[in-house]
Amino acid sequence: MTPQDLLEANGIKLKSYKPGKYATICPNCSAGRSHANQRTPCLGVKIDGQGATWRCNHCNWTGPEKGSAKSNGAGGEFAATYDYPGFQKVRYPKGHEPRFRIRHREGNSWKWGAGDADTSVLYRKDEVDKAIALGHIIVSVEGEKDADALWAIGIAATCNMQGANQPARKPKWTTAHNEQLRGADLGVLGDHDPAGYAHQDATCRLSLGVAKRVRILKLAEHWPDCPEGGDMSDWLAAGHTREELDALIEKAPDYGKAESEKKKAESEPHADDADAEIESLAKLTALEYAQQRRAAAKKLGFPASSLDRLMRAERARLGLDDDSKQGHGITFPEPEPWPEPVNGAALLDEIATTVRSYVVMLDHCRDICALWGMHAYLVDRFIVSPRLGIQSPTKQCGKTTLLDVLSRLVPRPLPSQNVTPAAIFRVVEAHQPTLLIDEADTFLYDNDDLRGILNGNRKGSRVLRTVGDDHEPRAFSVYAAAAIALIGQLPDTLHDRAVTIDLQRRRASETITSFRPDRADHLDVLARKMARWAKDHADRVGEADPAMPDGILNRKADNLRPLLAIADAAGGEWPERARKAAEASHNSEGDDAPRLELLLADIRDAFAKEGEAPVANMFAEKVDVEILSADLVKALVAIVGRDGQERQAADPEQARSDAQAPRHQTRQSRTEECTPQRLQA
Q1: What is the pLDDT of residues 431-442, one digit of tens each?
Q2: Is the sign of the CA dihedral 31, 33, 34, 38 positive or negative?
Q3: One domain for residues 64 and 10
Q4: Is position 40 within any domain?
Q5: Using an 8 Å Cβ cutoff, are 263 and 255 in contact?
Q6: Distances in Å between the alpha carbon of 365 and those of 356, 389, 569?
Q7: Parent domain of 658
Q8: Which residues touch 583 (CB under 8 Å, ≥6 apart)?
């Protein structure tokens, strides 16, 4: 930094910056003096071979401040500056003490210190937030120089302003830092020295349970010539490339509990005592632990509920957990992605054909099933995950079989015939499974809490519950893909958040392949191909904004957007097929009037026509009209725009069967007898 740069950085302006002595106004006090003295020179400035110095005769302001004398002379320039919100971090060349300082602006001059700025903000936070939202990996390093070096090669990186902590000292990386990385795919790098490894471990340990994934990478293990204190900038300067770093990050191990506990003992005082205490408690019987629990939690300095969690983990580590709880533990095998790239259109064709081979359904329902199954692999890329509503008018229409087929295709399938709200939000928080709920008509309509949780189909949807003996409020995610099968229709709020398919009972002339779990290995192959295609096209699908067919707006468009985005990315005939399926699904739902109201109105009109009286007159006075049940069926089937006529066109045999039902008579005596209860009886 030249004398001119130093003086102007402190608000001091001269007509010349050649060596010599000058007098000028003081930026620190002149503006506050009387009007007559505001232009009076009171600041003396000296420029010589050592740099620039100054002193104000009025306010006694001198500079540069102690500790920065080398910043304006030969060999003492700033090595770099790093901008944070509200302040700037300064790095001096090696050998300068202190090596780092922070300063902030006050008016036109710099003042040492952060002022009122928040120093817990991570470096380049706005850019890091965008990278997290796009699903990119974030690399945490020890300093701004390394972070800038990684950004220069296209890798999102950040660090804390405070730098690394020395071993056995309180970590400088805190919860305030890792909260800014919530949901991130995090890789952590440290410098090759004790302080660097202590900082790396503290960052990993505090980020567990906050970041989506935490990986630890030690450069020295892959760089035999790594010098003491070597960092990412040194590694890149040695000629290494981004491709090499991408490969190292991909192979980097997840930060595990065993390593966390080992490093914790090295970086925090008294960790050995706490570990020994927890191990001792883990070996107690259930009764002995219950007797000592509260006293042990008080001794260790954290809530009893936290001790319970540590105890469960420790018992599992020691192999002492006999899993004596009722029920069975939940596990989710992940399909191994297919080893080669997959053609999306051909894959969707194969999925749709396979689904239809097991369950009779219309073409648009078949295509919706294929697209929805693929969307389950990409659910984190969408803002909305549509529920798949599998509806039928009666039993034995293939709903359960369809769920069985989907359970072999989607990621982390969790089939269930009955669920509670607590089970849903806890399993979603822990595993984000694909929920496959059968027989929902037996428990869903009367369960407001469960419907409220299943309504959470927007990314970030959460429920709040209190947990532990100290009733700590905690947020649980309820965002996951879900298919719901039932007789009848989904409740209104769920129906608005769903793409629906309607199944009918198979006719004798229609053939299918019986589903046998032990003969369905080809479905596992399809699942592997789906996993590979989703992995290869995740970014493209997540960034897409597909065009909607005419008339599909608002929430209906939100529901269909993921399916159309997948179809557009797959290509081939699927963009057109998906939009035809969307229109068919939309049109099949008809208007918003409940079906029972439409049915009652049609029955009323049929009675009025039979009695040869206007509807208004018929219901204004007592009448006595009889109609044969077979004739009523024929009249209802003949009404244009109703399900009956559509079914007659699709299935004439069934319509004739309905009309040939036993000729019981239906009688309407007066208006009050024409009620839903009466008609249903």
Answers
A1: 899 999 999 999
A2: negative
A3: yes
A4: yes
A5: no
A6: 9, 11, 20
A7: 595-680
A8: 549, 551, 552
> Phi and psi for 431 in degrees, rounded to 5?
-130, -15
CB 141 within 8 A of CB 187: no
Report how far residue 344's alpha carbon sits from residue 572's, in angstroms, rounded to the nearest whole number.
8
Please indicate, yes or no, whether residues 74 and 191 belong to a single structural domain of this protein.
no
Residue 277 lies in a domain: yes
Total number of domains in the chain: 5
> What separation in angstroms does the CA of 163 have from each of 95, 218, 585?
18, 17, 57
Q: Report whether 668 contacts 674 (CB < 8 A).
A: yes
Based on the fold, state whether residues 56 and 132 are members of the same structural domain.
no
CA Rg, the chain, in Å?
36
The 10 Å CB-count burial string (b at 16+, else e) for 324-340 is: eeeeeeeeeeebebbee
pLDDT of the residue at 673:
38
Q: Establish if 624 belongs to a structural domain.
A: yes
The structure's pTM equals 0.47
**pLDDT single digits (tens) 249-285:** 999 999 875 455 555 555 444 555 778 888 888 888 7
Q: Between 257-267 and 194-207, two packed helices, what is the crossing angle to 10 degrees?
A: 130
Q: Which residues in the chain land under pLDDT 50?
A: 66-76, 258, 267-269, 591-593, 616, 618, 644-681
The residue among 102, 203, 222, 114 whose CA lies nearest residue 159 is 203
Residues 459 and 535 in one domain: yes
User: Are 81 and 88 spatial neighbours (Cβ–Cβ below 8 Å)?
Assistant: yes
The CA distance from 354 to 374, in Å, is 14
Q: Residue 235's closest CA among 159, 149, 158?
A: 149
Nearest CA to 407 out of 304, 263, 517 is that of: 517
